[in-house]
Specification:
Chain lengths: 313, 293, 505
Amino acid sequence: MFSLIARRLVQLLPTLIIVSILIFGLQHLLPGDPATIMAGEERDPEVIAQIRAQYRLDQPIPVQYFAWVKGVLVGDLGESMRLKQPVSELVAQKLPVTLQLAAMAMVIAILIGIPAGIISAVKKDSWLDYVVNVVSLWGISTPNFWLGIMMIFLFSVHLGWLPASGYVSPFIDPWMSFKTTIMPAFVLGNAIAGVLMRHTRAAMLQALGSDYVRTARAKGLFEPRIILHHAMRNALTPVITLGALEFGTLLSGAVLTEQIFTIPGFGKLIVDAVFNRDYAVVQGVVLVTSATYILLNLLADIGYILVNPRLRA
Amino acid sequence: MSGSLVATAEAIRVESPARRAWRRLKRRKGAMVGLGIIILLVLMAIFAPLLAPYDPTQQSWSLVRKAPSAAHWFGTDEVGRDLFARIIYGARASLSAGVISVGIAILIGVPLGLIAGYGPAWADIVLSRITDAMLACPFLILAIALAAFLGPSLANAMIAIGITATPIFVRLTRGQVMSVKVEDYVESARAIGNPKWRIALVHILPNVMPQLLVQITLTIATAVIAEASLSFLGLGQQPPAPSWGSMLNAAQRFLTNAPWMAVSPGLAIFLTVLSFNLLGDGLRDAFDPRVRD
Amino acid sequence: MILSLRNRLLISVLALPLVAGAAFAQGAIRIGLAEDPDVLDPTLARTYVGRIVFASICDKLFDIDAKLNIVPQLALSHETAADGKAVTIKLRPGVTFHDGEALDAEAAKYSLERHMTMSGSFRRSELSQVDKVEVVDPLTIRLLLKTPFSPLIAQLTDRAGMMVSPKAAKEAGDKFGQRPVCAGPYKFVERVQQDRIVVEKFANYWNKANVHIDKVTYVPITDSTVRLANLKSGQLDLIERALATDIKDIRASAGLKLATAFELGYQGLTLNIGKDEAKGGLSSDARVRQAFEASLDREALNQVVFNGEFKPGNQWVSPLNSYYQESLPVGKRDIAKAKKLITESGVKTPIAVDLMVPNNPETRQVAEVMQAMAAEAGFDVKLRVTEFATSLKEAEAGKYQAYLLAWSGRTDPDGNIISFAQTGAPNNYSAYSNPDVDAALTDARTKNDPKERKAAYLKASTQLLKDLPVIYLYHRLVIIAHRDRLTGYEQMPDGLVRLTGLKLK
């Protein structure tokens, strides 16, 4: 098993290198040049040339890339051209926000998705199964940004229950923090709930048909106890590993949702950076999120192996 | 979209797998409802000129942002165009975006997956790392960057989504190939001296099909949302041609004054994506040998 | 890297409760901005929204009033020498920066020279006519000019006139924008990108008697509907750039007040004349451009897209500006005239037009309406919605035929025209060139008498309206909405949100 982990860790590095080349190359292919965009209305050719030189934009792309890699290796993610602020500082500012949102979304997804999956498996092919199915599919089938707009319209504009946007740190005002993040967290969690529900259902169906559940039933154990103790414990492991992966996508995937609710997290940072051609920010954030994603992937695999001893060979 | 589709196709010899799957699919009400809606949507897109009560690009400056009425069922938009007509024509953009982008993803992804799974070892290593890398990048960011690079248009949005969706198919095909290639019939085909490419096409590909079909329907669902997202950001369908995503983008400014502008395109996207998801789930159950009849 | 990151996280988490205590101090207001400002260094900054924040932290040598008159701020007076090549500026005595440093002639000289010479300075071109800054006495400076330059004082009412603390600026270098130290009514407290900028009242402000609010937090909220929803719910006290289509709603809402002024800038359609790669109809003949203009109904455009709240215009200053040429009024839509002009030009219809539109829902709507209007005269307008970043590049390269481009406007009319219409100027995307226009525009900036300047501009305008490198469309209304607990708010045409004089009920 350790050799497997070691092998996966060795694979991590080339993957990250490819991610960085991919993002670096793609960005430099984008039309429009950061110095021109930065200048905006103030179009002084000489100043634009100065900025190009300052950020090495006048040098060949491979040179720029290696200069960036050199920085990353010593922990320097570069500087935002637009804000003249180190990227690592921006990442540190946004990470807690995105983590909070992702965690809340995950809780919502689990609270909806797992019970729904269990119910629909236990009551397979009943009307309840169909209802739960459609309800969970609605989460995956709604565009995040539309649901967000609709929720703002209903809960903020119309009913005035929740603030339409903005973010308050839980360390400043926990209740307000909850109120500002509950809508985006629901929008994100709602989509994942559907995924979790599907997988819980499938895993539960398999577990319920297995030998040990049949044995338990034969022993005359109370049905809910069978479901909760015997079937669920076995069914949930793949669901948990899946949850870890979904959490990973959440860290970078809240792009439009953060945009709509004006939540200052990774998603908003990176979209603004792409449109402003703030190269260093895009590279830094993608590097951090993809590294996190790959690590979570690895942890999920390890977890999977740990609970499935048969896979250890 | 991350599905752990572990299914070894234990074909039942009595009836062909496809026939059996269809028989099982027919019994799943959800899947049939999904299929029905998809067929209706496709018909709507094809016969849009006959169905739409107005020209979807005809502006009427005296009818700007009017609420739904008998003359305009879904209301009018910010330059006085009929929203019902735009929804009908918008189906063309959304459906073709879903189907064509997934088509692109399959055309690139499946061959690469076959090569990775059945070709030389170095190809597997290279392709797997690139696939991992692309999957680790945020999907929408990749699509946004690609669409911005190619220039905003519906066709380019499809290409961008197609490329971004490719790694899923590479990984899926590769995984299936890995599990199939040790089967007896593949081994024996090789023993007879069939060339590799022939084995890949004749013996392996058909066995990958069921899982692919499931993934295709589910990815179409994602692609429809992705197209709407790109159009929402202005990187998809160009005005004045309608697309549900760009209609939502326009609607956002008038949420308080004209909420109906956001309702109909949102519901249209929802219905389309839901149908593909229902069908995909049904297909998955129908193909899954673990699920009893 | 991970370690240092974690440390930073820890620090930011620990620092939060401290900020929190202050955030709810008495007399605090929250202002909703339409975008996240760029770097807060007056020398390096370039966005409109950044200027709104500067209005509270960095005072300028001069300011403008509602009628665009130049009034003293950190300076008391200015005097131009008879030959126009030297300007003497007397500074206000007893002014200090936020860090306690005195604002004297040395500091003013430092600030101006920083604007003029710092690498990456966007003020350089605004002060390009300044040759040297001299200290006359501790409270007097003299600017020596290369050539007479009448817009100079107007430049000093904006970022080029902002004074920075020499001590802080020297220490921070190009990181000054992370903690700007100026001489405005509020001093910088903290900034979290895309989240908030906090400033608090500066106790030693020269005009402190007129500063009544203790603390101001700027919150960027891009979506206008969401911004307004936040104002209505009381999360915000003031928002900038409310939509014209929301004006009725704001007027009807209890507890909300509206403050408006017409902008200094314009929205225009730049037509590619000199470097049209595709050699389209518009670039081939001025009559085709005139036909295009005649096909547009500016008033209808204003009604459809902006509920009639904006001001249609045909010149680079709005019809309300004293430099507007009344002898050249806004034309009416005339399809017959448009068709006649096209026939005369000999260009065959339909005339294909590649219209590049920066990606934003409002400009897209304007473009769609224009597309429908021009179609009636025989133009086949294809819209190409392009990301703003890309559109600038395409415009520079001449890969467009028409480009819907706005200009935020400058106090002096010179700033609205010379860099667009002069041969080879940086904003001259049209690649327009006419020696008479060049001469008239240069003439206008060397004269000090407004009457003489206006006469020079008339020559330029008459020619420009014939050649049409830019079809001016309309002037936007600066729309500020605020809660009625705020009193004393007055809107200036520059769109900035000035906080002095503002009171909380």
